């Protein structure tokens, strides 16, 4: 008997699960999962403007920065301003969906691909944003490579206002409705990477980007 079989066997014995009642137990588990009952949740105003306001407030509290533009066509100029303000080179790896924007007109060089070690800036969209916690929800796919938000020191995320939801429950419900099943990777990003392991002092950029910058699309 393998260690796995031994452990699972002891779990089954504790639950009094055997071949005779396995089907009944599986049905009960599936019914519980299908019900998707929720526990207590904090009140969140679900009006569009209120969701955007809370997302901004929580993002700033997590040391992210936020810019607001009206349309997607304004994103390249907003990125150029942000990079210039930090004296960063105007070049980045980006999700393919963003490549159609007029980057050259704003003086920013974009490569639509996954990020590499040398990339200082990564630009992504997001599957949705969670107002309750100021969190970005990114679903990995060939067109939305996770490395773009994880490898570069600076992560810029384009967030349509229409994709802001109240909580993680709504985020997962949206994923089930639009994707059918969860992708291989779902990343939740709440501000820059950080740790407090060393002398209980918060250090940014410990395991990922030093900076997270949101560009909020007000009219999308």
Strand fraction:
15-25%
Helix content: 25-40%
Poorly predicted residue ranges? none
Which secondary-structure class do the elements indicate? Answer: alpha/beta
Number of helices: 6
List keywords for this structure.
4-stranded mixed sheet; alpha/beta; elongated; 220 residues
Written overview of the protein:
It is a single chain. With about 220 residues, this protein is α/β, with parallel strands linked by helices. Helices cover about 30% and strands about 20% of the residues. It has six helices and twelve strands. It has helices spanning about 5-15, 20-35, 50-60, 75-85, 145-150, 170-180, and strands at about 65-70, 90-95, 110, 120-125, 130, 135-140, 155-160, 165, 185-190, 195, 205, 210-215. It has a six-stranded parallel beta sheet with strand order 1-12-7-4-2-3, with helices on both faces. β10 (about 195) and β11 (about 205) form a beta hairpin. The chain is elongated and about 70 Å long. The termini are far apart. The mean pLDDT is about 90.
